[in-house]
């Protein structure tokens, strides 16, 4: 049993690790992207990582009289040992999951947990952001226009495609526009923190093409 002193001793403490998760609903599937980064300290210890898919709210008349149930477990997305030895080291995990007919897709959420395997202490946890409606419905998703990916400093469009585009916008996972480029030949994103971002490329006909990138500082 955790006592008051144990809780108070942890107040104001910061984790050495950060987790970002986003999910995207596509028809009968859900795409989940997880980004784990060491943001402080150094250490060679292995850490246990668990990711699950849950349903935020389920209507069900249970024998105990409860009619609404929250964060109902559905399945394990991933379970692995993670090693992030120095500040800036990171790991990206991407999964595509079929949605069961009994689940409500709009209620789905991914949850990630980092745990010390020896003490079972939860080091960090996060819940996914739904980015399904991040861009307009008439955009086109492409994953092969940009390189390198993951990227540390400078992002490029493939040479045979670059003349098509007139601008590029970089978005955070929650849809905030962070950078706008009117010259797309060489895009400097070196000052962005590590994480997962979306790039929206606009062509000469006002069509929008989106792509997901991973920014790594290690």
Topology of helices and strands:
Blueprint: H1 4-10, E1 17-26, E2 29-38, E3 46-59, E4 68-83, E5 90-98, E6 108-115, E7 122-127, E8 129-130, E9 140-141, E10 146-147, E11 154-157, E12 165-171, E13 177-181, E14 187-188, E15 195-203, E16 208-215
Parallel strand pairs: 1-8, 9-16
Antiparallel strand pairs: 1-2, 2-5, 3-4, 3-6, 6-7, 10-11, 11-14, 12-13, 12-15, 15-16
CATH class of the largest domain: Mainly Beta
- Rounded to an integer in angstroms, the radius of gyration calculated over CA atoms is 20 Å
CATH topology descriptor of the largest domain:
Immunoglobulin-like
Q: Superfamily at the CATH H level of the largest domain?
A: Immunoglobulins
Number of domains: 2
User: What structural category characterises the helix and strand content?
Assistant: mainly beta
What is the arithmetic mean of pLDDT? 87
What is the share of helical residues? under 10%
CATH A-level architecture of the largest domain: Sandwich
Number of helices: 1
Low-confidence spans: none
Number of strands: 16
């Amino acid at each position: 049993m955790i006592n008051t002193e144990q809780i108070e001793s942890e107040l104001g403490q910061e984790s050495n690790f950060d987790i970002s998760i986003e999910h995207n609903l596509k028809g009968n599937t859900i795409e989940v992207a997880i980004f784990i980064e060491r943001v402080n300290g150094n250490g060679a210890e292995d850490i246990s990582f668990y990711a699950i898919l849950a349903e935020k709210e389920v209507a069900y008349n249970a024998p105990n009289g409860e009619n609404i149930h929250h964060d109902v477990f559905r399945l394990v997305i991933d379970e692995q040992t993670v090693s992030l030895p120095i500040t800036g080291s990171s790991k990206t995990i991407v999964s595509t999951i079929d949605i069961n007919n009994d689940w409500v897709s709009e209620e789905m959420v991914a949850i990630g947990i980092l745990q010390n395997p020896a003490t079972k202490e939860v080091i960090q946890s996060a819940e996914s952001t739904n980015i399904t409606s991040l861009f307009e419905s008439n955009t086109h998703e492409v994953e092969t226009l940009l390189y390198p990916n993951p990227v540390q400093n400078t992002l490029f469009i493939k040479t045979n495609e670059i003349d098509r585009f007139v601008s590029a916008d970089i978005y955070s996972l929650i849809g905030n526009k962070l950078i706008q480029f009117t010259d797309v030949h060489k895009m400097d994103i070196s000052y962005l923190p590590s994480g997962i971002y979306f790039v929206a490329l606009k062509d000469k006909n006002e069509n929008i093409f989106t792509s997901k990138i991973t920014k790594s500082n290690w």
